[in-house]
């Protein structure tokens, strides 16, 4: 799986103390993000609704009406973007709605850089810098959400039997092609429920857990054998060496060949 947080910036505007929105709702062809720096607003995205203030980031998928209403004058970063790798419907559902970042110092630093970069994101170096800062926002969100899941898991004790079974199933099937729907159907739950419950139990999505198992085996085969990349890919559950190379480089920050060279004397 390619880097799940890799995005393509489309547009950026910083609105300072906006008293009201021109439209009470809008639908966009790209993902949209409202990152609040000060003030409050009410929102509704599908069945999700609530209020957002400083530290909150509200994300709306494409093709869904984003209803919003200012409560107090609102300063916020409006960002339009697309994912480099289209998320599954289940993962898209998890990425939408309101997210909250508690590390205020880190968040304000990111906001400062976003304003410095400004709207000049259609050419370099602005495009690359904006991409980096928006992806950094997503990583902050994921880190804090994972930490919260970890704390909840510590309080809750052992994962429930269904998730323990899901983990065993993934370990047994990780090195062969399969569809995640097979697992959710076997457990009698929806793919969205599987993703949410597995993330809460193990601080990882089923897809990321599987990728970790596959890359672990790929690393061992690169280090301990002279097998060509296509053969290694087949033994790790990937279709071919090209796709394994993409996943490996995205997740581990180096190519398979560089990893093999690093571990050869």
UniProtKB/TrEMBL annotation:
User: PROSITE patterns annotated for this entry?
Assistant: HTH_ARAC_FAMILY_1, HTH_ARAC_FAMILY_2
Record's keyword terms, sorted: DNA-binding, Transcription, Transcription regulation
Which domain of life, per UniProt? Bacteria
Mind telling me which Pfam families this protein's record contains?
Answer: HTH_18 (PF12833)
InterPro entries noted in UniProt: Homeodomain-like_sf, HTH_AraC, HTH_AraC-typ_CS
> SMART domains, from UniProt?
HTH_ARAC (SM00342)
Q: Does the keyword Mitochondrion apply?
A: no
Domain HTH araC/xylS-type: from-to ranges: 164-262
Q: Name one GO molecular function term.
A: sequence-specific DNA binding
> What PANTHER family does UniProt report for this protein, alphabetically?
ARAC-FAMILY TRANSCRIPTIONAL REGULATOR, HTH-TYPE TRANSCRIPTIONAL REGULATOR EXSA
* Protein name per the record: Helix-turn-helix transcriptional regulator
Q: Which organism is it from?
A: Cohnella fermenti
Taxonomy of the source species: Bacteria, Bacillati, Bacillota, Bacilli, Bacillales
